[in-house]
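Ticket #4471: structure output looks truncated?

Reporter: J.K.
Steps to reproduce: submitted the chain below (254 residues) through the standard prediction queue, then opened the result file.
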Amino acid sequence: MTILPVPILDDNYVWLMHDGIHALVVDPGDAAPVKSVLAAHGLTLTAILITHHHRDHIGGVADLQAIWSCPVYGPPGIDGVSVPRGDGDRVELAAPACCFEVLAVPGHTLDHLAYYDASLAILFCGDTLFACGCGRLFEGTPQQMQTSLARLAALPAQTQVYCTHEYTLSNQRFALAVEPDNATLQARHQRDLGRRQRGEATLPTTLAEELACNPFLRWAAPVVKTQAARQGAEDDSPVAVFAAIRRWKDQFKA
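Returned output as attached by the reporter:
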């Protein structure tokens, strides 16, 4: 199985997973780049996965579906979704062979879903969890988002995390403001600077890397708790720490 990043718009990735013949795509916000990659590899599109309703994640669905007449899995109520899915459902495909557990992860939006395949150890998580970051809370509450992130953080550490924005370097600059002495984070930032200078994606990441570096998963770390208190956290509970760090990030100038 091969998973390719297809850059679209300013900083989005459409993830294209294929077996050499058949492909699925995740969050196609723009159809044209996806069609080009499918044609270049001689692939047939057999499914589309949608994580949430924002336009940069669904803008290309109608065009792709019109060409390939493939099922579109995603939250109910989104234009173009032909097979609604919710928490605890599955998306199982014969080609490319995969079986995703559907996880409800509200916070960024209320309808947000993630897709986890245990046998392939991959997670498509849209805008919930980023490399060294997390999505803004456009619709949900800090409690919802922290619960969603905790759910993802509980997956196996080797899980490959495929999020849909190239925000890594700016997220790392904020993470270094939270934990300036985190040696793992420092080394990772230098590695990813090199990747971007070479025009490479910084993704996927792994849950192990995120647990070591991502301030939005490190609500139990003493230094993160201290920083949250400085930002006005009401207490040192996971939700209060997360909420304070998220507020700080919203105001942070990299």
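Triage note (M.O.): checked the attachment and the full token line is present. The chain has one domain: 2-214.
Status: closed, working as intended.
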